[in-house]
Every structure is written in C-alpha cells, then in structure tokens.
Amino acid sequence: MSQYGTPIESPAAALADPRTADNVVYDPTLSELREFAREKETTTEYGSPSYVSEHQSRNADLTENALDADFGAGDYEHVETVLDAAADREMVCLDRQLGRHPENSYVCRYYVPKEFSRIALSWANLLKPASEGAEPDFTTVQLPDADEVAIRVLPDEGFTAVLGTDYSGEAKKSFLRLFMLDAKRQGGLGLHAGTKRVRLQTGDRDGDGEDDLETVGQVFLGLSGTGKSTLTAHGLGLEAPEDATMLQDDVCALREDGTVAGSEGDGLYIKTIGLGPDEQPAMYEAATHESAVLENVDVADDGTVDFDSDAHTANARAIVRREHLPSADEDIDLPAVDQVFFITRNPAMPPIAKLSPEEAAVAFMLGESVQTSAGDPDSAGEAIRVVGTNPFIIGSEGEEGNRFRDLVADLDVEAYLLNTGTVGDRDVGVDDTVTLLREVSRGRVEWTDDPTTGLTVPDAVPELDVSRFDVGDALADADEQIADLREERREYLDEFEDLDEAIQTAVY
Question: Are residues 158 and 139 in contact, defined by beta-carbon separation less than 8 angstroms?
Fold first, then answer.
C-alpha cells in the first residue's frame, strides 16, 4: 500500500511547503537559475545561454492521464517516485502565473532537481512570477534522471509527474494541458493555437475627419513547426495606423463569450531551424537577444550560433522574451474572435477555403498536417492527423469537435482552411499566404464554389493570381484523388463515436 494511498488523493499536498523545506531553493531569480546551470552552459556570441538536452522532443506515447487511462499500481509508483525525490533531493521550486483572464488564471508550481536548473530557467522565462503567498492550482515534479521515461497526469488533482526526460517542453506542456482541460470544463475549449489582433482602416465613419480603425481578432490552429508562430507574429505588410499584433503563440482558451484567454505572458518557445533576419526578422531579433535561452541549437565552442544546422536535432528551440519581439503586444487576451484558421500542408487542398461551422468542425477533427520533429523526429515530414492539432486533449475528442462547432456557430466566427505547403507541386509561398490573410482580414476576397474539392475558394484576390492554385489543374487525377481522400476522411471520422452526425456528413 502506498504511503500516500492508492490512488493518491492529493499528491501536491504530500509535498512539504517549498518556502520552508530545507532541501528546496524556492523561487530563485532567472540569474540564479542560470548560475545553477552554469556547468551545462555554452555562452553564445550574443551573451545568451545555450544548452543541449538528452531528450529533444516530447514523449507522447509514454504519456497517460488518469481520466483516459485505467491507472494501476505502476502508474502511482511513478507519482510516488517524484514525490520521494522532491522530499529528499536538492530541488528548485518555482511558482508562476499562467494566464491573466480572471476565470483562466492559475498558479503553477514546478519542481526539478537543482542540477537540472536549466529546465526551470527555460520554463520560468515563459511566465510571470505568481503573487507572493499564492497556493498552486497545478503542480509538476520533473525527475529527468529517473530510470524510466514516463509522464503521468492526474487531472483532477492538477498534478503531473515527469520522469526520465530532460526536455523542457514536457514541463511547459504539463501545465498547458491542464489549462486547456479547465477551459473545457468551464464551457469553452482549450486550443493549441496562436492569436493576433489586426487593426484596419475603414474610412471616416464617425465624421471626425479621420479614418476609423476596425479590429479583427484571429486564431491560428496548427501543429508545432507548420507556420503557426510565423503567421501569428507576421505584420501582414500593414503600415501605421494599421497593424497586426501577436497576442499569444501557443495555447489559449476560447470562452463562451467569444473572448480568447492567453496562457503564457512573458515568453515564447519557438523553433529555430532556418531562423534568419530575412525570413523571420522579428523572431530572429528576439532569438539573438542576450535574454534568449537556446536549446539544442548548434553553438560552437566560441559561441557562434548556426540556426540552419540540425546537428543536435531539427527540433532546436529558443525561449524568447515577449518584450524583445516587436510584433508582440503587452496583452495576451483577445477580446473577441472573428476568424479562425486551420493550418494544413495537404497538397490536395487549396491555399485557402472558407468553411461552414460543420466543415470547420471537420477541419478540427482531421487536424491534417505533416509530422514535425517536435512530435516524432523519426517521422518528420510524414502526413499526420491530430484532433484539433492538439496532442494534449484530455477526454473525448469527439465531444471537443462538437463543442468547437457549437462555439463557432454561436459566436458567428468565420472559419478558414489555410494551406501553407503546396497545391499539387505548386508552392504556396509565405508572401502568398500573407496576401490571402491580409485580404481576408479586409473582407476583399471574392468567393466561389470549387467543383473539384466542393469547398468555397477564392475567385479573386487583390494582388494575387489565385488561378494558379486551382486544385483541379494543379493535381494529377484530381477528381479521383479527392474522392479517395474524402472517403478515407469519412472512415476516419467514423471512429469518433461521440462526434455529431452532422459533422461526419460534412466531410470535404
């Protein structure tokens, strides 16, 4: 029998108060954390710390939660292992605030052995410190040098045990996973998505002699590495007084009233492969600031940084501070959502398509993209489907699809499918995508029904020849390929017993 009981009713309560525990360094500063990790650091040419981890991506196949899996004694032993470590080993413990919205703000408490302070340094740069004396809503204990890799989540207790991996992404997602679950329990939906605010001139509507500005709230759903961060942060080529401002990069909560609550208030966890001053100037500027923390980036002994190299992994990362990202706003919450975009890389899809609420739910359930090194490095580049482009869902995936459809319909949100890859063998460049986003934001796209895909696609777009992206022309044996794809999608959706029939029959 476990000393904590099996199942463990309150693992967080079994931990000693970190403010008074003799073996815990509580809430060290960022400078102190960096000093603790100095032996593992390579200092870059920019003065920032760089680290190389043994594990360089998430272990999704070794992650289980107690609501979707039948936890047994072995699972609770993993929890006991991290609790014992937190009681006996020299640990650092940080309290950070996740989110700012009153109903979506949480205190997150994170423990890790002091010798792995670089993980705490990375995570701490993403979030603001919690209020003094605050008690945790969520707790994670990470034990990177455990003999076995296992991530065990107790959702109702707000507790996550991370064993056997030193990947900092596991710490980050342990809290975001529970943040999204709570959003769903409140009637909204947690999204693996970025948010931005676009302000556009609409003319002198109030007669004061100056052009008025209209705000368009946008949400981008996509798997890591598919362009979500790039598009969320992109300025869309707008000039003052118009602008496009990033609010949130990775995870947010769509609420029933149409607001979208952000999660991480201080930093972003970005991919760095191919990062350069010409392709992504804003991200590059932040990643080359001395405040950035680089992970698994190729850094020479003399500090020279090579963002093009995958010497360690294609999933090289940087934690960058929001204040050094010109496109980032001080706010992380979107007051109202107007448009949702699903990012895909399916070559049988048009560069953009306008979706009905049911079709939007189909796109949500399909979550079609390509595998990236963030999920499974061995399968990078292969076609993949992840419901909601969100590999962190707890609970019924079909019910999430129903909830998404209902929210989009009730809030009268425009939904779009956005292909950032190729149409057939015709490349959809960043400039093409940005033009489409800008003109959709302005409402200047003329739409038509595509006989090949059955989707609503652009007929005319200012400053862009969309005819070259016609699926019927660009794709060999297009009708046959689309028919096969539609049938295969239909069979896939049939696997979700909780999914509403109206969504299953809306497959495109």
Answer: yes
